[in-house]
Amino acid sequence: MQNVLGNFIKAPNEKGNILLVNMPPGTGKTYASSSAIARHVRSGNPRRVIFITPYKKNLPLDYYDEEGNRRDGELRKAFAREGIPELYDEYVINLQPVAEHVLRAGAEMLRNGDAELLRSFLDDRRFYNEIEAHFRLALEQGGSKRQFDMMVENFRLLENQLRRRIHRKLDSVGKKASERHQYIVDNFPWIRDLYPEVDVYEKKVILLSSSKFIYPFDPIIAPSGSFYESDLLRDSVIFMDEFDSIKLDWLNNLVNRDNRRRIDLVNLYTRIHRGLMNRG
């Protein structure tokens, strides 16, 4: 299987760039996919790899055990096996739910004493105090997943307002994504901690959920839109894990989204079908 995956990544884009990874649990799918991705990065091949799954547990990411100790995920282990552990953080990004990540990262800013950077940037004490209160709640209370999910839900509106303020700041910089990215790197690097999406164009391996693939996506430095419609897919290799479940996820969105999004999803299904027929 590793040879199949490796050849798929290296092959010219003649028969489509989507591979459905649909194997029974316990057959080494995650191990093989992670190994192929790590070898691809080591080879210096410029093609971007996008790994899509409907289940967070299927992402080959670092995790915490029952004692709270961080454990290396399968992808980081694969980078180590290939002798490139230092490239993992440089090339890999996991696109998480935005409000959830900002809340966690903001709590870490408070823990590390870096929240003053955000306060200075906002130059609005009242708004900052509102945001800080949510960060502090997440930092001090912790609690169950259900409790944290409620915190995230209560934080969504503030997060949206924060993101709009960052956008307004960047409007004075220029329209090119490269210029905006460099401006953030030089002046407000903490924004990259709150919004990893800022660095997405610099990454070679992108991990995300099937819902994130079709939901509105805001990279901060470029116009927002669905991930599927972005130029990040240009000449990329797309791994789709558990495609039957992905279809159900997308069909649920097909029912609930507007007409324009429905057309996009139909086009996506058509593209996948053609790729499969060409490979037959």
Short description:
Helix content is 57%, strand content 11%. The chain has 13 helices and nine strands. The relative contact order is 0.16.
Q: Helix and strand layout, with pairings?
A:
Blueprint: H1 2-10, E1 18-21, H2 29-43, E2 49-53, E3 63-64, E4 70-71, H3 74-81, H4 88-91, E5 92-95, H5 98-112, H6 115-122, H7 125-141, H8 145-171, H9 177-187, H10 190-194, E6 205-209, H11 210-214, E7 216-217, E8 225-226, E9 237-241, H12 243-256, H13 259-279
Parallel strand pairs: 1-9, 2-6, 2-9, 5-6
Antiparallel strand pairs: 3-4, 7-8
Helix pairs in contact: 1-2, 2-3, 5-7, 5-8, 6-7, 7-8
Gyration radius from CA atoms, angstroms: 20 Å
Shape, principal axes of CA atoms: globular
Give the overall pLDDT as a whole number.
Answer: 83
Task: Flag low-confidence runs.
Answer: none
Reading the helices and strands in chain order gives: HEHEEEHHEHHHHHHEHEEEHH
Q: Could you give the distance between the termini?
A: 17 Å
Please give the order of strands in the largest beta sheet. 1-9-2-6-5
> The biggest beta sheet, please?
5 strands, parallel
Instruction: Classify the beta-strand content into a percent band.
Output: 5-15%
The total count of helices amounts to: 13
Q: Could you give the count of β-strands? A: 9
The class by helix and strand makeup works out as: alpha/beta
Helix content: 55-70%
